[in-house]
Amino acid sequence: MFFSPIMMVKDKGRYISLSNQVLPDAAISCTFVILIYYKMELEELLDQVRQLFSEYLEQHQQRKTTARFAILEEIYLRSDHFDAEALYAQMKTKNYNISRATVYNTLGLLQECQLVSKHQFGKNQARFEKSYGFSQHDHLICLDCSKVVEFCDSRIHQITTRMGDVLHFNIPRHSLILYGHCHGCEIKEEREKTGTATLQRKMKRQTRHGVLKNRIPNAV
After folding, report:
1. pTM for this structure?
2. Which of 60, 99, 187, 216 maximizes the CB count within 10 A of its CB?
3. Residue 48: which domain range?
């Protein structure tokens, strides 16, 4: 399991979390231990995926280029679902001399050696995520903003295992995607509805008092 680092800023000699709460000395020490452990775990993970990718390229007589390994490392430094164009844009902002074709080609190779997973969420562009060293999980997709949320529930694994036993299937993996409306989009929609209703009531009041009628010019 890999830890996410705790983000802090140093202000006037005090360490402050992003929630603007001053951290006690014990929390600071614990945080640095987690950060060091996270860095060690990340380096170990990167070494493993580099080795696996190198072996795959050798077995399939593919070239071991600097660009391909740079793309691999960039993917494993990310924590989101991304499309090929977003990855290409990020590589360019970091001044990598990598073509768009190289990005697409490398993503294909990484899928083949199971270091990257590809998802097709509805009609949106294909999205990718790192897959080695990370547990099986499923996804929630917002139909309004295309937000992707990961979740994991052991009961889903139990169901797939049971179905495999009952139907005599070996099920090494599965894909479950739930579509809905995220809380943020529901709040936005409710505010828009409230604003529209308020505007309609205001226009009705103006019409009753003849204000709106007086503002409309005579037809030519």
Report:
1. 0.57
2. 99
3. 1-134
Say how far apart CA 50 and CA 110 lie, in whole Å: 11
pLDDT tens, position by position, for the chain (220 residues)?
A: 443 443 433 334 443 444 445 444 444 444 443 344 456 588 888 999 999 999 999 999 999 999 999 999 999 998 888 999 999 999 999 999 999 999 999 999 999 999 998 887 766 678 898 888 766 678 888 888 888 887 878 888 889 999 999 999 998 877 788 889 999 999 888 888 887 767 677 677 666 666 555 555 554 4
Which residues, 6+ apart, have CB-to-CB distance to 95 below 8 Å? Answer: none
Number of Cβ atoms within 10 Å of the Cβ of 132: 16
Please tell me the total count of domains within the chain.
Answer: 1
Integer Cα distance of 27 and 16 in angstroms: 11
CATH number, position 107: 1.10.10.10
Backbone φ and ψ of 145, nearest 5°: -110, 0
As a whole number of angstroms, the distance between CA 161 and CA 147 comes to: 29
For 62-99, give the DSSP string. Answer: ----HHHHHHHHHHHT--S-B-HHHHHHHHHHTT----
* Residues 111 and 64 sit within 8 Å (Cβ to Cβ): no
Query: Angle at CA 46, nearest 5°, toward 45 and 52?
Result: 90
Phi, psi values for residue 115, rounded to 5°: -95, -15
Using alpha carbons, list the distances in angstroms from residue 32 to 2, 38, 70, 154, 203. Answer: 15, 10, 28, 32, 60
Sign of CA dihedral 187, 188, 194, 197: negative
